[in-house]
Amino acid sequence: MTCNPMGNPMKTTTRLLLIACLALPFLAACKKEEAPKVEVAAALTAPTTSDEAAWNAYITDVVTRHADGATGMYAYTLPAPDSPDFQGYYDRQLEKAQVDVARGGTEGTLLAFASPSSAKSADLAVASFANAEPGTMKGVRVLFLGDAADSERVKAAVEPTGATFQFVEAK
Fold this sequence. Notes:
With 171 residues, this protein is α/β, with parallel strands linked by helices. Helices cover 44% and strands 14% of the residues.
């Protein structure tokens, strides 16, 4: 007589099926909780004043809504031109943006340029890409939030780098 340490495979299978059949009604009675429905908030509108907090909220909302598939995001924002130390802020943002652009882009990165002053934001974007090497930003998206009148000059500065240009009108 030989001893099978696994027992009779047919008995084991039958037992497992029996356990599954007995447990099935209990499992069926347990309803999965439905995932809570997330309501998407209405898009914010561009502030009509130079209130920095309102602009920051608006810019954050717009950039977040256009961040589909972004693996990294960099926002280069400016306060209103009449803000104290505007030029110092502009110079610091320009230096950071130039360094980031000169380094080249990683696929999936989103660079966003925005400000209460579309013209100043466009100036910042154009200057940031002025010394960029052609083809160094493939797979990167550049989002410009501003006026249609400024978008073409930003697009012209961005496209030689291979980045995808995306314009969102501030409204």
